[in-house]
Write a structure and sequence with these properties.
Number of strands: 5
Structural class: alpha/beta
Distance between the termini: 13 Å
Strand order of the largest sheet: 2-1-3-4-5
Length: 185
């Protein structure tokens, strides 16, 4: 399998966030052939169609250019109030515009949600999937990744210590590599 450029979008801006720790672990566990990297989304101005001119905001242009070459996307998100964090929804809105020039269309996606609670970000996971399906992204169905009690999966330095979580992330990466191959072209 050739090296596949995978954009990882993290739905939490907090320093030391569990979502960032999951994304870092995912990158470290990536098998040969997958090259995941985090694309920063915290500097994106809120999407406003009035700003969609010949010179849109520079952070929009940077984000679109950085992700356009991605062959797939992995979304790692916490859950805020049973839903998707605004920063991640905004990145999706910025990347899907202008109409007809979406960076997402046809590109495979995987969703990982996490929460210190017991539901593992179930609401955010499914809310995100709704948007991705609308954007014509083949979304990995299995394994589903709802990481509950994520605050116990890492040590003080942010290193993944939970073997069950490690196994699930490895299984997800293997399945995602298969989805990428299926949709390569």
């Amino acid at each position: 399998m050739p090296n596949r450029n995978i954009a990882v979008l993290v739905g939490s801006l907090r320093n030391g966030s569990y979502s960032r720790q999951v994304a870092d672990a995912l990158i470290a566990l990536a098998p040969v052939g997958l090259k995941p990297h985090i694309v920063e989304i915290g500097d994106l101005p809120l999407y406003n169609q009035d700003l969609e001119t010949e010179t849109p905001p520079e952070p929009w242009t940077r984000f679109r250019n950085e992700t356009r070459a991605a062959e797939g996307f992995i979304f790692v998100t916490p859950e805020y109030n049973r839903g998707l964090p605004a920063v991640l929804k905004n990145a999706i809105d910025v990347g899907s515009r202008p109409y007809g020039a979406s960076i997402f269309s046809g590109k495979p996606a995987a969703v990982i949600s996490q929460s210190p609670g017991v539901y593992g970000g179930f609401g955010a996971n499914h809310q995100l999937r709704q948007s991705l399906v609308f954007l014509d992204m083949p979304v990995l169905q299995q394994p589903e990744a709802y990481l509950s009690k994520s605050n116990t999966a890492f040590d003080e330095s942010g290193q993944l210590t939970n073997e069950e979580t490690r196994g699930l992330l490895q299984k997800l990466l293997t399945a995602f590599a298969g989805l990428l191959e299926k949709h390569a072209g």
